[in-house]
Write a structure and sequence with these properties.
Elements (H helix, E strand, L loop, with lengths): L7 H15 L11 H8 L3 H13 L3 E4 L3 E4 L16 H25 L2 H20 L4 H14 L3 H9 L1 H16 L6 H16 L3 H22 L4
Antiparallel strand pairs: 1-2
Helix pairs in contact: 1-3, 2-3, 4-6, 4-9, 4-10, 5-6, 5-9, 6-7, 6-8, 8-10, 9-10
Amino acid sequence: MKISKTKIYEKIADIILEQIKSGEYAVGDKLPSIQALSKEYGVSVASVREAFNALRTIGVIEIKQGYGTFVTQKEPVFFNLEESSLTRKQVEDLLELREIVELATVKKAAELGTEENLLELKTALEMMESAVADGTSGEAADLKFHLAIAKAAQNSMLFDLMNNISDVIQETMKETRKMYLFNKQRTLKRLYDEHLKIYEAIEQRDVEAAENNMRLHLEEVQDTILQNMATK
């Protein structure tokens, strides 16, 4: 079966995910090799590899170097509280803390950010853009972006506060991006665009726009996480 060349890795990932859900590939089964799937679908090896990376991110396959790729579960699991170090209340508290702190930092960043700060933000954005292109989750770049905003606020205590909770923030970012990988309404491109708008407002020293764009982004993140938290 040949497939079109638009968003190739997403199409491949969707096909394989449906095959897993339907039982064509059972839990524990070994998937065909990247090379075999590349030939079957008429696409590049790189595209199949990106699809595998996306499926691994949402937990349905495991890639064992030297052995192959195996199905680990039928359905993606988004933010399973039993596997997370956080309780639901802690996640809710963290999201509230992020909103309080990050709305303050982004305003200061728009007022006081330096060229060096803007360069750091731009670098993080480029890392996020690469994640959109290759199908990886990109939470490290996401965290780097938000920490760079805190740094641009020119308040060492605000930065230290963000840095001290960075591990749990990154955990929620990772889970958010899993959800975006396989949600037709919430795409990684949309997530990237939200960050781009924040960056552009900071670059233009538009305090109001920076705060508004950050608020919209954090509200979207909060809705995505709380609506998809698995408690099995």
